[in-house]
Amino acid sequence: MSFGKGCHLHLIDGSAFIFRAYHALPPLTRKSDGAPIGAVSGFCNMLHRYVEGNTGPDAPTHVAVIFDKGSHTFRNDLYDLYKANREAMPEDLRPQMPLTREATKAFNIACEEIEGYEADDIIATLSCQAREAGGRVTIISSDKDLMQLVGDGVEMLDAMKNIRIGVEGVEAKFGVGPDRVVDVQALAGDSVDNVPGAPGIGIKTAALLINEFGDLETLLDRAEEIKQPKRRQTLIEKREQIELSKKLVTLDCNTPLDFTLDDLEVKDPDPDVLLPFLAKMEFRSLTKRIADRLGAEAPEIDDTPQPGAEAPEEAAPDAPPIDPDKYETVTDAEALAGWIDRIRERGYVAVDTETTGLDEMVVDLVGICLCVDAGTACYIPLAHKAEGESGGLFGNDDLAPGQMPLAEALDLLKPVLEDDSILKIGQNMKYDAKILRRYGIRVAPFDDTMLISYALHAGLHGHGMDALSDRYLGHTPIPIKEIIGTGKSQITFDRVPIDKATRYAAEDADITLRLWQTLKPRLHREQVTTVYETLERPLSPVLATMEMHGIQVDRDTLSRMSNAFSQKMAQLESEIHELAGESFNVGSPKQLGEILFDKMGLEGGKKGKTGAYATGADILEDLATEHDLPARVLDWRQLSKLKSTYTDALQEHINPETGRVHTSYVQTGANTGRLASTDPNLQNIPVRSEEGRRIREAFVAPEGKVLVSLDYSQIELRILAHVAGIEALKQAFHEGQDIHAATASEVFGVPLDEMTPEIRRQAKAINFGVIYGISGFGLARNLRIPRGEAQGFIDRYFEKFPGIREYMDQTTAFAKENLFVQTLFGRKIHTPEIAAKGPRAGFAKRAAINAPIQGTAADIIRRAMIRMPEALAKMPDSAAVKMLLQVHDELIFEVTTEAADDLVGVARGVMEKAADPAVKLDVPLVVDAGQGANWAEAH
DNA sequence: CCTGTCACG
DNA sequence: GACGTACGTGACAGGG
Known about the structure:
Elements: E1 8-13, H1 14-24, H2 38-53, E2 62-66, H3 74-78, H4 97-106, E3 110-112, H5 119-132, E4 136-140, E5 154-158, E6 163-165, H6 167-174, H7 181-188, H8 203-213, H9 216-221, H10 229-237, H11 239-249, H12 271-281, H13 284-294, E7 328-329, H14 333-346, E8 348-355, E9 365-373, E10 376-381, H15 406-417, E11 423-426, H16 429-438, E12 446-448, H17 449-457, H18 465-473, H19 480-484, H20 498-519, H21 522-525, H22 529-536, H23 539-549, E13 551-553, H24 555-580, H25 589-599, H26 617-624, H27 628-652, E14 660-661, E15 664-666, E16 676-678, H28 690-693, E17 699-700, E18 705-712, H29 715-724, H30 727-734, H31 739-748, H32 757-771, H33 776-783, H34 787-800, H35 802-818, E19 820-822, E20 828-830, H36 839-873, E21 882-886, E22 890-896, H37 900-912, E23 927-932, H38 935-938
Parallel strand pairs: 1-2, 1-4, 2-3, 4-5, 7-10, 8-11, 11-12
Antiparallel strand pairs: 5-6, 8-9, 9-10, 13-14, 13-17, 15-16, 18-22, 18-23, 19-20, 21-22
Helix pairs in contact: 1-2, 2-4, 4-12, 7-8, 7-11, 12-13, 14-15, 16-23, 17-20, 17-22, 18-20, 24-27, 26-27, 29-35, 29-36, 31-32, 32-33, 33-34, 34-35, 36-37
The structure holds a DNA duplex.
C-alpha cells in the first residue's frame, strides 16, 4: 500500500528504548558466553509489548524504529561542544547496540539510521513527508527535542506513561505552540545536549519573551526595548550564541533518505526469523511467550556455557619484543604534544607514575610514563634531581637538566587524563590516581590490569605486575632494586639518572598495556565482566577517597596508653622472672618453652616442626589453671601486642600534614573479595578485650563532628540461610530473633524462655563453625569439649538442618568439577587445591565452603560502598560527610554532630538495599548503628 | 626471610 | 587406619 491519506505512521525513538531498557534492568549476561544482554532483553520486551498493543482502529499502517548512527553529526561541525558533556556509553552497552538493530529486523520492523544525522532528524523528515502525503504520525518518544514536530496530524506518545502529547501538551511544556518551540529552546538552551542558549534565561522567561515579541528574530531585533537591564544586555551580547543554539535545536526535515515511506509498511513477524533470534539471545520466557502467540513451536535454547566460544581478539601475536632501549624520554612540550596526539588517535593509553616512595599521601611525583602501543612508550621526567650528593647544607637539590616543568606537563596531560573518551589503563591505578588527585587531576575513565586479573583469577595466582608479566608475557620486568638499590644505600627515584629511569619506568607502562590487551578480552570468556565492572573497577576510586580522608588519631591518648602498658609489663616481667627463678626474654617463645617444660617440668609440652615447644595462648591458658607463670605471660603478651602493634606503631602512622592516619586498602588482597588493610592495618584494631578496646578511644572525630559506625548484623549467617535455603533460619531472621538462641533451641531442644548463656554460646560456636566448614576437631577445640561431644552437636545440627549438609556437598562437588566456586554476584574464587590429595584437600574443601558465603558478604558491602558517595552527596552539607573506614561488615563515617542521625538513615538505607536489584535475598539485611566522639563510643 | 603469635571479621 | 583440621587477613618480634 502506498503511503497516503488514511495511513498512520509510527516512528519509534530507538535510542530512548535502548537506554530505558539498559537502565531499568540489572546487568544480565548471556549464560553461554557471558555477553552482556540486559539492554537487548529489555528492548525486545518493549518491542513485543508495543506490537501486542497495536490493535484496533488506531493501529499503524507503517512503522519504523529510528536509531542514531555515529557520534559525529552536522551539529558538531556547527558547534564542537555539542553534546560534549555526554557521558561515554557504558562498556557493557556498546556491544549490545548492533543486537538491538538485529532485534528490530527480527520483529520484521523497518530499522533505519543514517550516518551523520541524529535519529531526531530522520524522524523529523519522515514526519514531514507523511504529513504532506496526508497521513497521520505518532512519534513514540518523550524527548522534548521532538516536540517541535507536533501538530497537523503529528502526535507524540510517551510509551512509558502511555500519555499522548498533542499541541496542548507541547504548550504546557514550553508555554508556546510547536512552531515556536525551537525559539524557546534557542533561548533556554539545554544542559543535557550542551546547547548554550542565553545565560540566565530558562523556559519560563523564554516563553514569556517569545509570546511578547512573536518570534525569536523579532525579539533579537527589538532587544533594545526590553525593560529588564540584565535580560536586555544578555540578548544583545549573546545574539550570536542564541542564533547558533537555534540552529542546533532545529531538526532537519530534509535529511537525505535511502528509503521511502512505502518501505515502512507494517508486516507480521516471521516466526522462522524472530524465534531463532530470541533463542540465540537465550531469552527463555520471551521466546516461549512469542512462540505461543505466533502459534509456532519454541526452538530449543542451548545455553550451556561455552568457554572461549567468543574468542575475542587476543593481544597481537606480532607485538614487538619488550626492549627498554626503544623507549623515548620526553623533555619538552612539543614532544609531549606529539604523544598526546597519538593518544587521542588511539583512544586509550597506559599510564604509570613514578614517585619518591610508596606512601601516596606523602611522596612527590617524579615522572609519568605513557604507552599507546605495545613497544611504543615514553617517560616524561619531571622532578629528577641533578647528580651529586643529596640534601644537606652542601647537597645538590637542583633539578636535573632536560626536564619540562612539572606544571606545564600536567596542564597538557590533564585534559587527556580526564577525557571521557580516552581510556586510561594502569596496573594498580588507585596508587597513580591518588598521586594525580593531589596534583588536581581526576583520572577517568580507567581500566586496571590488577583488578582485571583479580576478577579473572582470584585464588590462582598473585596480581602484582611482576607475577602477571612473568605469567602472561613471559618477561621479567627490570627489578626496582636494580634502579634504586636496597637497604641503607637505597635512593629515591628522583635521584635515578633520567636515562636509567626511562628504561625502567616506560617498561612498566609497556607491560601494563600488553597485559591489558591480553587480559581484558578474557573477562567475557570467563563471564566475569559484570564482576569487574560493578564490583571491582568502581570501588577503586571510592577506596582512594576514603584513604585520602584518613581518620583523626589522637597521639596523646596513644602515648599515655603506651606508658601505662610499659609500666604494667615491667611489673609482670619481674614477677615472671621471680616465678621462673631466673631472668629470660619473655617475648621469646623458644626461651619461654624451655622454662615451662624443661626447667619447670610442666605437662603438655609439644614441639613443633622447628623443634621448639609450642607456647600459644591456648596452651598457656590450659597451664594457667595450675600455675601463675603462664597466666602472667598471657597478660604480658596481651600488653606487648597492644603496645607494639597499636599504641606505639599507630603514632608512627599519623600523617604530620593532616594529623590523620591514612590506611591503604588492598582490593586484591583476599581471595574471597574481602579487602585487606595495610600501613597500618585498621581492620584489626582491638575490640574483644576491655584494655584493647580502649585503643579505639584514640580514633576520634574533629571538633563539632562525631564518628558513626554502621555494621551488618549476622550477614554471613543470613547469606548461609539464603544460599542453603534453610527455612527455619530464614524465618528466625524475618522475625528478628536472636539467631544463636534460635539455633540452640532447635538443635538442643531447649525452649527459648529456658535458654542459658552457656547453651547459646555453644550454638553460636556451631553457627560460626558451619560457615568455616565445620569439623568435630575444630569445634571441640573451640568449645574445649571432648571431640565426641562436639561431633554429637554437629550431627544433631545437620539432622535439624539437612539443607546445610546439602549445600556443603553441592559446593564441594561444584568446586571439584570446576576448580572454582562463586558468590551470588558471580565473583569466582578459584580453588585449585580441591584436587589435591592428603590434608591439603581438607583445607581446600573448607575454604570452598566458606568462600561463597564470605565472598557474597564482601560483594554486598562493596556494592554499598560504591553507591554510598552518590547517596551522601544528596545530603544537605554533604561536604561535611566522609566515609572513612571499612572493616568487612562495618563502615565508619565522620559527620557533623547535627547531621549524624540523617547519615545513619541514608547509609543504613544504602547498606540494607545493597544486594538489590541484582540478587533478591530471602532474608532481610539488618544494619546496626552507633555514634560518638570516638570509635569506642560509636561501635 | 621464616615462624610463631595474636589482633580483627 | 593415620593424619591433621575450623574461614579470611596483617603486623610484630625473635632467631637463623
